[in-house]
Design goal:
2 domains, 2 strands, mainly alpha, 4 helices
Length: 150
């Protein structure tokens, strides 16, 4: 069932419910039927809602992976620099190469982090838009249900 169909079914359930005398418009509704419809509604929510947690986890994983790669690159650069330092005649060259490797690793890590953040921001922005649309549709349906009550 789609969200709209479930909301219509909820409206029908309310409209067909038995009115309680002298209760100010309260009705008796089947709890099981309403709970089933709520479960269906949760299952019918856009996949973006469920995917948002996965996206956040992926973002964190990518950032950690980038940090790990940068750390490995830095360790490799330091190891190479230490080896070159032991050879006095090429000490200056080793220092320059080590700095270049470190700078490149930092640049690569920063680029990876920025790309990851931008990707996550785009996905989360689209998710937020979809959630806003869903919330708006739900609010309109609630208003319609309230009007039926009056």
């Amino acid at each position: 069932m789609k969200v709209e169909e479930i909301l219509v079914a909820m409206e029908d359930l309310l409209e067909d419910a038995w009115n309680l005398p002298m209760s100010g418009g309260k009705r008796v509704v089947s709890t099981n039927e309403l709970l089933d419809l709520i479960t269906d509604l949760r299952n019918a929510m856009p996949g973006e809602i469920r995917e948002s947690n996965d996206i956040i986890a992926q973002r964190d994983k990518i950032i950690l992976q980038g940090r790990d790669e940068a750390e490995l690159t830095l360790k490799a650069a330091r190891a190479k620099a230490d080896k070159l330092v032991s050879q006095e005649e090429i000490y200056v060259q080793a220092q320059q190469q080590a700095q270049e490797i470190i700078a490149q690793a930092q640049k690569s890590a920063k680029e990876l982090k920025n790309a990851t953040v931008e990707y996550c921001e785009n996905i989360l922005s689209r998710t937020a838009e979809n959630l806003a649309k869903s919330a708006s549709a739900i609010e309109e349906t609630r208003k319609s249900v309230r009007k039926q009550k009056e």
